[in-house]
Design a protein that fits this description.
This protein is 54% helix and 0% strand. It contains eleven helices and no strands. Helix 8 packs across helix 10.
Length: 234
């Protein structure tokens, strides 16, 4: 399977490159003691810590990742901090939990199974709390996750569902090149590259609207067709 791209990618915030994920014996959340374990429904198994600004923690990590400065320990620390905090009931908290689990899953390989399931649960929770969250960021995350993740690691969707979510997002927000890039990535990951061409062409035409890591993904996907010139976008 190809790798996960930064699978949600907002202006601040995916799995990359498409990882082969299988169930591991121990996910970080299960192996590292924390003051509380927060469930996707907002419950906790013990007295939770005070809420933190989960979104700010995610933004800081994403900025470091884009700059090439984030270490594995930085990802772990950000994830652990948010996991140990109280769920404040916001879409920001749910999205940050999903995104931080995804960022750890990028590095976990065969041990990423529980993190992938957690990312799905909290992305769905973010959508429940705010269906249009951050210009479709949670929808983009969930759609890409369903396309990229092995089916046994997710509970509520498959690759067809994911592609449908991403195409619907392009229809709802056609001006956003991130949405076109995710649809193109999905088609290529599903071994059906030809329909990806118009989406790649749009992303190429609006390249300046993409983060640097998404620009690199765009270049990688375009190589399927021999690079930008091979796309013959016109």
């Amino acid at each position: 399977m190809a790798a996960f791209s930064a699978f949600w990618q907002t202006p601040v915030v995916v799995f990359r490159p498409l990882l082969v994920l299988t169930l591991g014996a121990c996910a970080l959340v299960a192996c590292t003691p924390a003051p509380a374990t927060v469930s996707p429904t907002g419950g906790a198994t013990s007295e939770p810590a005070e809420p933190v600004d989960a979104r700010a923690i995610l933004v800081a990590l994403e900025n470091d990742i884009e700059a090439g400065a984030a270490t594995e320990k930085d990802r772990e620390r950000a994830y652990e901090t948010v996991v140990a905090s109280a769920d404040d009931g916001s879409a920001d908290y749910a999205f940050a939990r999903a995104a931080l689990a995804g960022r750890l899953a990028e590095l976990r390989g065969v041990g990423a199974g529980k993190l992938v399931t957690e990312a799905e649960s909290f992305a769905r929770l973010a959508l429940e709390r705010e269906p249009e969250y951050d210009e479709g960021a949670a929808t983009r995350m969930l759609g890409t996750l369903y396309v990229m993740a092995p089916g046994r690691l997710v509970e509520h969707g498959d690759a067809e569902d994911g592609l449908s979510l991403l195409e619907d997002l392009v229809e709802a927000r056609p001006e956003d090149p991130r949405n076109h890039l995710r649809v193109a990535e999905a088609y290529i990951a599903l071994d059906d590259p030809d329909p990806a061409v118009p989406f790649l062409c749009f992303a190429q035409a609006h390249r300046d609207g993409l983060r640097r890591d998404d620009q690199r993904l765009l270049d990688t996907l375009s190589e399927t067709f021999g690079g930008k010139a091979g796309l013959a976008c016109g």
